[in-house]
């Protein structure tokens, strides 16, 4: 494996690779054995473990940004990536280098092969991340759950705090039918005696999470009871928690729902305050400098382009609530693509309310839904075009000079956003010249 490309080809061909299929085969024994081959690196740094149907990546990014602003050495593990695998594994602001990826792929592959151990794609990447964090001397790693929680490969960290951002229906093939079943899987990250922070959860999910926490004697911080976020007219917000009361906070991430994620992040940092204290200046700096591309990312120009990786009905509803604050009453031109195993008909029902025109495309993975099939879910009377290639689809929308004042919204899958983001940035730069 002498090159970065060959290394990626190797891990992308492992079972369960997100770009090749949905054979996740959830269990913890394999990754536990693999980590033991490296002396259990996950035991050598603190962790903040973040689960949830939506918002967990943004919440993890906010926590990471604040702790980094306080000058802690902080790892960040998230998935999926937008443009490059290296985005998944960071220490501070630096993603893992391609050279380090090549070396780690070789090392993990060799050690697991000698142990006759076969890992899935996500398990392999998780081992790489934990080894990298330990070797880089991370004091804490902010770790986003990949799928569910109880049997997710990340659930071998020893967290100092856990967070559950939101719970809605998604991945029911793996997590079970209904909110309560999904909550049981996500609540599986709760550890005995470790504080757990809950976002605004449905009543059924809240009961399940509180029950798990009670059985494990884990103290709970609940949205609306132990902490709250109050929006201000100027776009800032106030945070009130058990120990902190902070007013006039700014947040670099647009969208009202990101203030919810910021609240979960701040409550998690509050729970960490004894082990890793942060000053108010670092909190404000971290909130105002956090970057999380592809999540309600607004690229200026004519037309403006909005990129959002909303990939389930709950995320689509949050996006639909946020877009009018960015474009006013104008209709957008929607570029939509989805994975075939997602509830794309419900997403389209929500997002088409924003759109005067829809272009349907294929998300560039092995699980991309056929855009022709997507068209069956469109409301009657809404103009729709099918363009199989997503970059060509965006180019086509941007080239329509008659509609230069009509914003373009790209949504339906983070993989779709990743496929078109480079072209969107190029178009935005050109349109601003």
Radius of gyration: 21 Å
- Report the average pLDDT across residues: 91
Give the biggest beta sheet.
8 strands, mixed
- Kindly report how far apart the N and C termini lie: 43 Å
3D shape: globular
Task: Please specify the SSE layout and strand pairing.
Blueprint (H helix, E strand, L loop, with lengths): L3 H9 L16 H8 L9 E6 L4 H14 L4 E4 L11 E3 L2 E2 L2 H17 L6 H15 L4 E5 L16 E4 L7 H4 L3 H8 L9 E3 L4 H13 L4 E3 L5 E4 L5 E4 L4 E5 L6 H16 L8 H10 L7 E3 L5 E3 L5 H10 L1 H4 L4 E5 L7 H8 L3 E6 L10 H4 L9 E3 L3 H10 L8 E4 L2 H19 L1
Parallel strand pairs: 1-5, 1-6, 2-5, 6-7, 7-8, 13-17, 14-15, 14-17, 15-16
Antiparallel strand pairs: 2-3, 3-4, 9-10, 10-11, 12-13
Helix pairs in contact: 1-4, 2-5, 3-9, 3-10, 4-5, 7-8, 11-13, 15-16
Description:
With 433 residues, this protein is of the alpha/beta class. Helix 1 crosses helix 4, helix 3 crosses helix 9 and helix 7 runs parallel beside helix 8. It contains 16 helices and 17 strands. About 2% of the residues have low confidence. The strands form 3 sheets. Strands 4-3-2-5-1-6-7-8 form an 8-stranded mixed sheet, with helices on both faces. It has a 6-stranded mixed sheet with strand order 12-13-17-14-15-16.
């Amino acid at each position: 494996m002498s090159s970065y490309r060959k290394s990626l080809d190797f891990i992308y061909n492992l079972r369960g690779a997100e770009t090749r299929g949905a054979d996740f085969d959830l269990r913890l024994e394999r990754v536990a054995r693999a980590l033991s081959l490296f002396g259990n690196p996950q035991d050598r740094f603190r962790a903040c473990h973040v689960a949830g149907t939506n918002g967990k990546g943004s919440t993890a990014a906010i926590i990471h940004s604040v702790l980094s602003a306080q000058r802690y050495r902080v790892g960040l593990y998230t998935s999926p990536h937008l443009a490059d695998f290296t985005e998944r594994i960071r220490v501070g602001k630096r993603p893992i280098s391609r050279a380090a990826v090549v070396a780690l792929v070789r090392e993990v592959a060799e050690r697991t092969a000698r142990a006759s151990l076969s890992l899935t794609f996500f398990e392999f990447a998780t081992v790489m991340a934990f080894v990298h964090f330990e070797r880089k001397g991370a004091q804490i790693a902010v770790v986003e759950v990949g799928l569910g929680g109880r049997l997710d490969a990340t659930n071998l960290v020893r967290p100092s705090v856990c967070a559950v951002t939101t719970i809605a229906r998604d991945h029911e093939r793996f997590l079970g039918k209904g909110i309560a079943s999904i909550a049981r899987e996500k609540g599986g990250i709760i550890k005995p005696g470790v504080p757990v922070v809950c976002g605004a959860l449905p009543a059924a999910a809240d009961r399940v999470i509180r029950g798990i926490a009670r059985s494990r004697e884990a103290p709970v911080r609940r949205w609306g009871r132990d902490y709250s976020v109050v929006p201000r007219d100027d776009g800032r917000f106030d945070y009130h928690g058990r120990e902190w009361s902070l007013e006039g906070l700014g947040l670099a991430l647009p969208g009202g729902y990101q203030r919810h994620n910021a609240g979960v992040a701040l409550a998690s940092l509050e729970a960490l305050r004894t082990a890793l204290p942060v000053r108010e200046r670092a909190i404000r700096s971290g909130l105002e400098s956090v970057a999380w591309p592809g999540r309600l990312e607004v690229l200026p120009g004519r037309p403006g382009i909005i990129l959002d990786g909303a990939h389930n009905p709950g995320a689509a509803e949050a996006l639909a609530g946020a877009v009018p604050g960015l474009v006013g009453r104008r209709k957008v031109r929607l570029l939509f693509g989805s994975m075939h195993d997602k509830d794309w008909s419900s997403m389209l029902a929500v997002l088409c309310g924003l759109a005067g025109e829809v272009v349907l495309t294929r998300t560039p993975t092995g699980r991309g839904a056929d855009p022709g099939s997507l068209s069956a879910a469109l409301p009657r009377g809404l103009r729709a075009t099918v363009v199989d290639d997503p970059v060509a689809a965006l180019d086509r929308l941007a080239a329509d000079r008659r509609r230069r004042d009509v914003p373009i919204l790209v949504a339906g899958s983070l993989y779709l956003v990743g496929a078109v983001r480079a072209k969107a940035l190029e178009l935005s730069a050109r349109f601003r010249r």
